Amino acid sequence: MEKWSLMTLTVLLALTVRWAVSLGSYSGAGKPPMYGDYEAQRHWQEITYNLPIRQWYFNTSDNNLLYWGLDYPPLTAYHSFVCAYIAKLINPDWVALHTSRGYESQPHKLFMRTTVFVADLLVYIPAVILYCFSLKETSAKKKASTCALCILLYPGLILIDHGHFQYPLSLGLALWAVLCLSHDWDLLGSVAFCLALNYKQMELYHSLPFFCYLLGKCFKKGLKGKGLVLLAKLAGTVLLSFAACWLPFGTDVEQIMQVLRRLFPIDRGFTDCLFISFQDKVANIWCSLSVLIKIKNVISPRTQLKLSFAVTFLSLLPACIKLTVQPSLRGFKFALVSCALSFFLFSFQVHEKSILLVSVPVCLVINEIPFMATWFLLVSTFSLLPLLLRDGLLLPYAVTTPAFLAACLASFSILEKTSAEDLQLKAFSLSLKGYMAWFKSFPRIVRSLFLLSLALMGALSVLSAAAPPPQHLPDLFPVAVAVVSCLHFLLFLLYFNVVILWDSKNRGQKKIS
Q1: Nearest to residue 311, comparing CAs of 270, 368, 278, 355?
Q2: Residue range 430-458: average pLDDT?
Q3: Mutual angle of helices 356-364 and 370-383, in 10-degree steps
Q4: Angle between helices 394-412 and 2-22 (to 10 degrees)
Q5: Distance in angstroms (rounded) separating the CA atoms of residues 358 and 341
Q6: Averaged over 83-100, what is the pLDDT?
């Protein structure tokens, strides 16, 4: 009973924080003509409820794709339809075709916020709770509740979902997939991940680790026996899952192609980042480099696309090979982090919110590397600062970020977990025998860098919020936030790859047979 009491208090606290953040502003509030992501979600409800399925992704007189046209997979559209059906019962004006554009009212805001709250409560939060209870490393169930507390208080996801406005369903479904795989329920895990991918195509960030881990399990079992059977079952499960999600569109090839064109608009992808006037600051390598090097003036857009693909592929290749050759649940979780971070840093179509696709897998290893996980999650939240300031979410950011740091300090004593062994770098340090003297001072160096990082992020946060930029450099602070965050992420990518490649013990893993 005690473990459930602690977990209940944890969930209540997490829900209270979410409710408090939802009372504030949201993306695009009172900012016509496009408003923001809040209006995008409302508009999708309007479109899916009033138009036949065959028109959802096509440009028509009733569906102007230039005004928040649907650009997510079918499950997002189906979810919008369910929300619209409920909204119609409450107030038909909320989803009236054409006339509801830009609709804003307190009752409607309450309804929209409630839909996010319910999605969180039904999908994301239960997955976090069950995952924390399933951790082999949690010797005491009290540790499960503290781990859940830190994950559920991660400010980046709270501020984007309940502040900016976004649904946590794809990340929640991906968490369910990880949870299923941790119990060897490979087919259920495959279904859950297919659902996540069919809700948001950005779940492709996580697709390679899922593929490599399951393929590695098949290899280990032997492709002439149980492994071949498992591979066939997995392939059938994936095909059936996708067929079920795309069934309403499967009768017409042109329908499928149009949906795919909306999901992957390559022509507006990588070059957008280079041609925009830094209205959206993304902490990836290309946008950061464009501050110093005008890549668009050096190479063609097509070459840029090829370069982006090559760098992304090469950066995630080591982790994927290691996971395929030596599949383990621990390696799988770290590969989710590494591969998602490679996609974020080097791929051609990136939004600042995509860092959440890295942050959620980092949450899954917070019990193993609490110091580095906490550091990364703080930086990821900081990288969202320009977006949060535009949405009027400075106060929630200023409250939730220190609160999260305090929770991690209290739960894991992170400043005491900076040794090479605590950071999962013992095997790496042993391979550098000639530099062991340097590793003796490693904990002190890491703590100093962490404190310096916090000071830098704090100073830039204050300057971004309170100080006017120089007239000749109006984007100085947002660009500084993006570049500083990008440098952090590059170092984190190196760190996670070192942990993956030098890990030969696969501690706490069940043998795959």
Answers
A1: 270
A2: 83
A3: 160
A4: 160
A5: 6
A6: 96
Question: 133 and 141 in contact (C-beta within 8 Å)?
Answer: yes
- Identity at 101, one-letter amino acid code: R
How far is it, in rounded angstroms, from Cα 130 to Cα 407? 20
- The alpha-helical segments, DSSP class H, found in 23-64 are 37-50
Q: Quick check: helix, strand or coil at residue 83?
A: helix
**Long-range contacts, 251-256 (Cβ 8 Å, 24+):** 252/54, 255/54, 255/57
Q: Which two tokens stand for residue 308?
A: 């982006």
Alpha carbons 453 and 458: distance in angstroms, whole number: 8
Lowest mean pLDDT among 141-150, 318-327, 413-422: 141-150
331 near 323, Cβ under 8 Å? yes
Q: Both tokens of residue 187?
A: 């087919």
pLDDT one-digit tens code per residue, 352-377: 899 999 999 999 999 999 999 999 99
pLDDT in tens, 279-335: 457 888 988 888 888 777 788 778 888 888 999 999 999 999 999 999 999 999 999
Cα–Cα distances (Å) from 46 to 39, 78, 92, 322, 376, in that order, read 10, 12, 10, 46, 38
Q: Give the C-alpha distances (Å, rounded to integers) separating 364 from 176, 357, 493.
A: 12, 12, 16
What is the Cα–Cα distance from 393 to 306, expressed in whole angstroms? 37
Q: Which amino acid is at 51?
A: L
What is this structure's pTM? 0.93
Whether the CB-CB separation of 273 and 345 falls below 8 Å is answered with: no
Boundaries of every domain in the chain: 168-264, 268-503
